[in-house]
Amino acid sequence: MKVGILGGGQLARMIALAGYPLGIRFIVLDPSVAACATTLGSHLHGDYNDETLLAELAKRSDVVTYEFENVPAKVADFLSAHTNVFPSPKALAVAQDRLIEKNFLNELEIPTAPYIEIDNFDSLQEAVLKIGYPAILKTRTQGYDGKGQSILKSPTDLKSSWQKLEGLAGILEGVVKFDREVSIIAVRSVSGEMVFYPLSENVHRGGILRVSESRKNDPMQAKAEDYVTRLMKALNYVGVLALELFEVKGQLIANEFAPRVHNSGHWTIEGAETSQFENHLRAILDLPLGSTAGVDYVTMVNFIGGKPENEEVLKIPNTHLHLYGKAPRKGRKIAHATIRAKTLEELEPLKKRLMALANEADDS
Ligand code: AMP
């Protein structure tokens, strides 16, 4: 079996690492010669819009998937005319535009923060009167890791926030005063089999995920599964999907979903019976899905911009280090580590050590 992947970053790399034991081989399309997944398979080097390369990718792959949601619609459509593409172009189209995404979630009665479409400065002024301060202005498309976002705390922020949009269409959202952020990683196969991982509890700073943890028997599990089931069924979804949620006073409010394997599911490599990466492959190849049961208590910590010495991380008991093979750059995710422990008491001091190393090396 050969799987084609659009994008050759760390997500593609971890998908490939999970696929090798199953005898799956990979072909990656990425414009960068230094893309970190390319050492794990064949590399088609060039632009995502290059139809000659896309046709070759389709021809040489049994199925094509991707590691980022900003794949242009016409690329996804071109590929799906030539081979199986999972998740579908429809899922991509919904996920890559925050306005379409929030409308879609609301139609499924999955609650979101209040939001209003922004297409000029006047509409921003009107919207903030309805939503109130604080509010968040985001670009409708192309935003990730907090990029293209600004918080408006008072009318004096209106002009600078508007300028940050740089002429792109936007969406103004009310700020949710959440008790915590969680995400659910769910999987649906070609045959419609569905499985759900235990909830991830996530901490972001500056719009970038820093820490994800999984705890047993989260009280919000059933509600999150209900929401993500509605979403996957409505999209006739195939693959791994991550739904990011805010918990507010015992209720869940959806922020966004990613139609791909997700950073908040990296803990599943060591912390679950089957990782999100392996289950993504099983789903798109229509193989039986693996158990998502959590093993032990786990915490995953991202290394952003810089990373500690490998030895310092590996000295911490029960810690698993994942280096992405990427050059350090400000704000860039270059590695992560996951700690596993039998009890919370055992986990806490190890987590403290790991977080201290991550914070010291942080360059975001
Ligand atoms: P996003 O790019 O939408 O995933 O946002 C990145 C992070 O910014 C989220 O994980 C939250 O920590 C924060 N954030 C985004 N939107 C909101 C909101 N409406 N209310 C509160 N926090 C938000």
Give the helix/strand layout.
Elements (H helix, E strand, L loop, with lengths): L1 E5 L3 H10 L5 E6 L11 E4 L5 H10 L2 E4 L6 H10 L1 E2 L3 H7 L2 H10 L7 E4 L2 H11 L3 E5 L9 E4 L5 H7 L5 E5 L5 E9 L5 E3 L3 E6 L2 E7 L6 H15 L3 E10 L2 E8 L9 H4 L4 H9 L12 E8 L5 H5 L4 E5 L9 E9 L2 H18 L3
Parallel strand pairs: 1-2, 1-4, 2-3, 4-5
Antiparallel strand pairs: 6-9, 7-8, 7-9, 10-11, 10-12, 10-14, 12-13, 13-16, 14-15, 16-18, 17-18
Bound molecules: adenosine monophosphate.
Describe this structure in words.
With 364 residues, the protein is α+β, with helices and mostly antiparallel strands. The protein folds into three domains: 2-85, Rossmann fold; 114-174, Dna Ligase, domain 1 (2-Layer Sandwich), CATH 3.30.1490; 180-361, D-amino Acid Aminotransferase, Chain A, domain 1. It has twelve helices and 18 strands. Strands 10, 11, 12, 13, 14, 15, 16, 17 and 18 form a nine-stranded antiparallel sheet that branches. A five-stranded parallel sheet has the order 3-2-1-4-5, with helices on both faces. It has a four-stranded antiparallel sheet with strand order 6-9-7-8, sandwiched between helices. Strand 14 and strand 15 (251-258) form a beta hairpin. Helix 1 (10-19) crosses helix 10 (276-284) and helix 2 crosses helix 3 (73-82). The two termini are 39 Å apart. It binds adenosine monophosphate. Adenosine monophosphate (AMP) binds next to strand 15.
